[in-house]
Amino acid sequence: MVKLQGDNIHLGTLERADCKKIWEDTEYNFSQLTEPFIVGRSSANADGWFDDIQKQQGNTHIRLGICHLGLERISASTQENNIGSQRVLEKCGFTLEGRERKARYFAGKRHDRLICGLLAEEFLEGAKQ
């Protein structure tokens, strides 16, 4: 298990409870689909998703958060109503690149997805300041 701990942040590999929370929060409203439906996306299948991640972890994949090594760009997205996440991306140097209107279903409502990007040269320039 990989864990990185800072004063105001904790990054680590996904735990079973994390998978359940992610799947419950993004479970589809089948009467008002906003994204293509992928069979098996439900909180009931979160355990299977976690098991699949664990089978690949360290073998064919490593599921972690953010890694800047050798990357040309990083993309990130957040929901329009997640102000804290938007501030974090902004402080890290990300630029708002676009908006997908009503692209996410979360907690019973549709929300815009904000698409942000950070280029390697922007990251390096920000690190100099």
The rounded Rg comes to 17 Å
Distance N to C terminus: 34 Å
Overall geometric form: globular
Specify the number of helices.
Answer: 4
Q: If strands are numbered along the chain, what order do they take across the biggest sheet?
A: 3-5-4
Largest sheet: 3 strands, antiparallel
The percentage helix is 25-40%
Strand content: 25-35%
Model regions low in confidence, pLDDT < 50 over at least 5 residues: none
Mean pLDDT level: 76
Number of strands: 5
Structural class computed from helices and strand pairing:
alpha+beta
Order of secondary-structure elements: EEHHEHEEH
Write up what this structure looks like.
With 129 residues, the chain is α+β, with helices and mostly antiparallel strands. Helix content is 30%, strand content 28%. It is built from four helices and five strands, in the order E-E-H-H-E-H-E-E-H. It has helices spanning 16-25, 46-56, 83-91, 120-128, and strands at residues 3-5, 10-12, 73-79, 95-106, 109-119. Strands 3-5-4 form a three-stranded antiparallel sheet. A two-stranded antiparallel sheet has the order 1-2. The longest helix has 11 residues, at 46-56. The protein starts with a strand and ends with a helix.
